[in-house]
# Entry
Amino acid sequence: MMNLLSKICWIGAVLYAVAGMVFGIVMSASGDHSLSPAHAHLILLGWVTLALYGTFYTLCAEATKTWVARIQVALAHLGVLVLTPGIVLAIQGRSETPAKVGAVIVLMSMLLFATVVFTQPTRSAKSA
# Structure
């Protein structure tokens, strides 16, 4: 059974995947692929990375009980939601600030994830 943090990751991942697919179809239909970097970040950070986080938190359910894990997942979602439109604004020459802020948020999320991963106990062969 999936725990709440895993479910939050997976629900977000599916929503970002659908949004990314729609984004790709719109670009294809218009013939304008200038926003493909934003599309790629939406798919890689939203769909792929959140799905990987969700998988980890399913396999290591004990990790979901920490405040670090909860903040990490919140920052992962926030990062996607700030970085993706930030890249669009940067490509359009309107502002690079949201993309920069989003990139820092995504990095903070990954550093917190590293903390969660590195602090997980290793099971011995006896307990496996």
The chain has a mean pLDDT of 95. The chain is about 75% helix and 0% strand. The first helix runs from residue 4 to 30.
